[in-house]
Design goal:
alpha/beta, Rossmann fold, DNA polymerase, domain 1, six-stranded parallel sheet, binds 1,6-di-O-phosphono-beta-D-glucopyranose, binds magnesium ion
């Protein structure tokens, strides 16, 4: 049996939006007098917007009610979306286009599995919307990574079973979600140190497609 579908995480795999997330959260944290730095920003990789806000607010002495939290999340997203206007196809990460072309040539289905509610806008900005057979994102799920929901939805939308799917992720929460879904998990960038990843790579430029599509290869 071979892998017949590949699910790509978006932020950190297809395009790097960390700096924009950092700048937007930094503005909110400064406004609220809460300490925030790039190291804390790293812990927000793959984590949903509201859960990210909870992590940031946990450093405050103040208690925030739901209404206040909704307003802060909304404000953060406004700042973030303004920054996303700068995104273009030039921001697609190295190796992505080449991998998409090679997967298409082999008739492998491809999907997005992202926690981001801004997925449609980001894909539009980088011009890749029509390159995917399915798009599962933060708008269509109840439970965020490490819950497997987004990847199970992507598999369902492609009409394949989880066991023939490989997920490419840059976050520990995403690797955990892929494993919980019963899928092969490929960790790149920050996720290349994840102990439970089946394949670990610096980026997508060195990915061996036969290794990616072998269901048994390094499966833990
Ligand atoms: P939004 P991914 C995730 O995207 C990001 O890694 C994470 O930092 C962000 O908080 C989350 O999306 C929600 O994003 O505020 O745009 O809905 O890595 O799962 O593609
Ligand atoms: Mg990510």
């Amino acid at each position: 049996m071979k892998i017949s579908a590949v699910i790509f995480d978006l932020d950190g795999v297809i395009v790097s939006t960390d700096e924009y997330h950092y700048q937007a959260w930094k503005e909110i944290s400064d406004q609220e007098n809460i300490y925030f730095d790039r190291e804390i920003n790293e812990t927000l990789r793959g984590v949903s917007r509201m859960e990210s806000l909870d992590i940031i607010l946990s450093r405050s002495d103040r208690r925030y009610n739901d209404n206040e939290k909704q307003l802060l999340a909304l404000r953060k997203n406004e700042i973030y979306c303004k920054l996303l206007n700068n995104l273009s196809p030039n921001n697609i990460l190295p190796g992505v286009i080449n991998l998409l072309l090679r997967l298409k040539a082999r008739d492998i289905k491809v999907a997005i599995g992202s926690s981001s509610k801004n997925t449609p806008f980001i894909l539009q900005q980088i011009g890749l919307t029509s390159n995917f057979d399915a798009i599962a994102d933060g708008n269509s799920i109840k439970n965020s990574k490490p819950d497997p929901e987004v990847f199970l939805l992507a598999a369902d939308m492609m009409g394949v079973t989880p066991m023939v799917c490989a997920v490419i992720e840059d976050a520990q929460a995403g690797i955990d979600a892929a494993k919980a879904a019963g899928m092969k998990a490929v960790g790149i960038g920050s996720a290349s140190t994840c102990l439970n990843a089946d394949l670990k790579l610096k980026d997508l430029t060195n990915l061996d497609i036969d290794q990616l599509l072998d269901v048994n290869e390094l499966r833990s």
